[in-house]
Every structure is written in C-alpha cells, then in structure tokens.
Write a structure and sequence with these properties.
The chain is 39% helix and 17% strand. It has eleven helices and 13 strands.
C-alpha cells in the first residue's frame, strides 16, 4: 500500500511523509519545489519533480508506483498574497485539484485526504468554529480551498472516491530537526529571520477587536497535524467512513503578540515587535472546535505553545548556518 503526497517536499508535506514511513506505509512525493525543499524528502523515498498541473506526469506516477491514495497538499497557500494574485491562486489550487482528480480516476486511485484550510470560514462570528459553521471565505485562497473541497465532494458522488478534507488552523513548530518552515509569509519563520538579521519582528495590525489588539489564532504543532493525516489515510484504507471535513485546531486561541512573545523568550531575544498594517483577508479571531477530529482521527494537542516555539527555533539552525544574523 503506497500513498502519493503532492507537495511532499514542503513544510507540512515532508512531516506527513516521515509519519507515513514511521507507520510502515509506502510513500511517493511529487513537488515542483516552488516552495518545498528537495532535501526535506528522504533519499529512499521516490521523488518526482513536477507541477500539479501536469496531468500526464500525475497519471504516470500514480500507475508506476501503484498508488492507492493521495494526500493532496500541493498548491499556493498564502491567504494574504492571494488577494493581489487571485488568478495564480485559482490556477494552482482549483485547477491543480481538477487535474489531479481525473488522473486518480484513470489510475483507479480511490482514496483522498485533502489539505484544506480554516480560511474557508472567512471571518466567523462565533467563538469556536465547528465544521457546521457557515463557509464564507474572505480571500481568494479561502475560496480556492472551498472550491477544491467541492470538486472532491462531487467526484466522490460521481466516481465513488473515499475522502476527507482537513481544515488546518495555524501550523507551527517542527517534528524533526532537519524540517523547518521557510515560508516568507508565516509568523514564525518571518520572526526568526528578522531576529537573526538584527531586526525587530513585525505584527500585522494591532487595532483588531481583541484583548490586545492583535489577531487571535489557533496554533497547532505540525507533528500533531501530520499524525492525523496519516490516521485519516489508514482509516480510508480500512474502509472506515469519515466525515467530509474536520477541523484540526486546539480549541483555544492565543494572540499573535502572545505567541510572538513566547518565541522571543525561547530565543532569548530582546526585541519589541514593530507594528505594521493589517493584511487583507485576515480575520480578527478564528479558533476551532476539535471534537470531531478528536473522535475520528486521534487528534489531540500534544505540544504546548512554548514547545511549538522551541521546536521551531531548534529546527531553524539552517538559517543560522547560512550566516543570517547572530
């Protein structure tokens, strides 16, 4: 039994690949390395460098490796950046999924775990988001993830695809010392890079209707996230019916300022964050109810925010080796 991980050289995808291997399940990676890293993929894991839009390569990879299921993460994942780049976002996230699904059908691959996002909820007016909360995305990124969920849902009706979509909240930390978040838009890598370069990290907006004026988010450890992806894959292989979508969140919110202060403390850095403008598409607060995933996917928060920050800082050693800062 072998699974294909699209985007498997990225931060989250590479963690999922490691967990598949640890649980004795074969895995293949396809990634165009636009944001992933070739050295994140173990040397003995088959790797195909290609874009998700290349249907011929997808079909060939699925058949040659006798793939039984796909964890689909490949795409453009930046909510704020999707506002000035909506067409690119739709191309990678919607068309990429539209290309993948017929390739799966032609190769008789009937299992799919989809990397969705809390961005499908937009700006919710509830304290805790459940899977039944109205889906009102506020950015092209959120819209593209929701449309991809719909494509998978409709293909399930048409072709008997067994599937689930996992809606992530804010993913941080590291489960392995050689895997780190290198996104140019995420809080931890932005803050770590700034501090290493002798700059104060930036907070995007401090005038939100929250206790300290900064956005309240639901932070989860990437290793916990990866584990539940593989549990979902195992359940689908065993024929266990899963819900169409699950929230992967903590049930608790921390403000950006609180989490940044934790990271600064772990790093031993004495900086006061500078305040920038709000990012378009950022809701003031979004925190998940986790009950459904806890019941079906063995989801739980196994790491504190301090442990998330400490693991992210430890895994950021490659940045230090490159001479970026102190």
């Amino acid at each position: 039994m072998t699974w294909l991980v699209t985007g498997g050289a990225g931060y989250i995808g590479s963690h999922i690949v490691r967990v598949f291997r640890e649980r004795g399940i074969g895995v293949v990676v396809i990634d165009d390395l636009s944001s992933g890293h070739r050295d994140f993929v173990p040397e003995d894991v088959p790797f195909v460098e290609a874009n998700i839009l290349d249907g011929a390569v997808l079909a060939r990879t699925l058949r040659e490796h006798e793939i039984v299921g796909v964890v689909h993460l490949a795409g453009f994942k930046y909510a704020g950046e999707s506002v000035p780049r909506p067409l690119h976002t739709y191309e990678q996230n919607v068309e990429g999924t539209r290309v993948l699904l017929p390739a799966m059908q032609d190769a008789q691959v009937g299992l799919c775990v989809f990397s969705s996002s809390a961005a499908v909820y937009g700006i919710p007016d509830v304290d805790l988001v459940t899977e039944a909360t109205p889906l009102l995305p506020a950015s092209p990124y959120g819209e593209s993830k929701l449309i991809a969920e719909w494509l998978i849902r409709d293909q399930a009706v048409a072709a008997g695809l067994a599937h689930t979509s996992l809606r992530y909240f804010n993913v941080v930390g590291s489960g392995y010392p050689d895997l780190y978040d290198s996104s140019p838009h995420n809080l931890f890598p932005l803050a770590i890079s700034a501090i290493l370069e002798g700059r104060a990290p930036r907070i995007n907006g401090d005038d939100y209707p929250t206790p300290d004026g900064t956005c309240v988010r639901d932070y989860v450890h990437v290793q916990d996230l990866a584990f539940s992806h593989v549990i979902a894959a195992e359940k689908l292989m065993a024929g266990v019916p899963l819900q169409p979508a699950y929230n992967l969140g903590s049930g608790q919110g921390q403000s950006v300022r609180e989490v940044l202060d934790t990271l600064l403390s772990v790093m031993g850095a004495e900086f006061s964050p500078r305040i920038g403008a709000r990012r378009p598409g950022d809701p003031p607060r979004i925190v998940a109810n986790q009950d459904l995933a806890a019941a079906d996917l063995q989801w739980e928060m196994r790491h504190s925010v301090e442990e998330m920050a400490r693991s992210a800082w430890y895994a950021a050693k490659p940045l230090r080796a490159l001479g970026r800062g102190h």
